[in-house]
From TrEMBL:
This is Large ribosomal subunit protein mL40. One of its GO terms (biological process) is mitochondrial translation. Keywords: Mitochondrion, Ribonucleoprotein, Ribosomal protein, Transit peptide. GO terms for molecular function: structural constituent of ribosome.
Length: 186
């Protein structure tokens, strides 16, 4: 019997439409039995009156807090210190963002002085979904995989086709023959 079951599992599965349409009560019972086993594994019945790491019933929370923080004043002091620390972090982040924004503003002002055409091109608002006539013509002749890759990529973003940076090199090495898709500019 086991060899018959093992050999059936290797064969491709064929589903008869009538069997899928009319499920029997034994199939429902088997499914319920599986769910019951999973439920018992996740939520064992012997942990009813004890704290559960996954459950919401924690009777010892008050005692644990009382042991860790003996008084309300200590708790308030810790809360105020934590909020002060968070405020300092927020101010540091805001100052760093302000510094970066100021550097970006200076760079854009310098670009405007050096080359107004490049400045206008850098600040031009563009619909990333819009396609130029040359681009739509090139997409007509492209294979479907290449067409999908080009259509899914938004202009100005890092290309998805490039290798994702990892800590270790891939087993296949670098793909030296890889070339980006031809994408006409306007």
């Amino acid at each position: 019997m086991r060899s018959l079951v093992a050999s059936r599992s290797l064969l491709p599965l064929r589903i008869v439409k009538t069997a899928a349409r009319y499920s029997t009560a034994t199939d429902a019972n088997a499914t319920n039995a599986k769910r019951e086993v999973i439920r018992r594994m996740l939520y064992p019945p012997n942990v009813r009156n004890r704290p559960s790491p996954t459950g919401s019933w924690r009777p010892d929370v008050g005692r644990a807090l009382q042991r860790a923080i003996p008084s309300a004043q200590a708790h308030e002091t810790i809360e105020r210190a934590w909020k002060l620390y968070q405020r300092h972090l927020r101010k540091k982040r805001d100052a760093e963002l302000e510094r970066k924004f100021e550097c970006m503003r200076k760079a854009m002002a310098e670009l405007e002085d050096i080359d107004p055409t490049l400045f206008r091109e850098a600040n031009k608002t563009e619909d990333p979904r819009a396609r130029s006539p040359a681009e739509t013509e090139a997409l007509k002749d492209a294979p479907s995989a290449e067409r999908r890759a080009i259509e899914s990529r938004m202009r100005g973003l890092f290309p998805r086709e490039l290798k994702v940076p990892t800590d270790t090199p891939s087993k296949e090495g670098w793909q030296h023959e890889w070339r980006p898709f031809d994408r006409p500019l306007h």
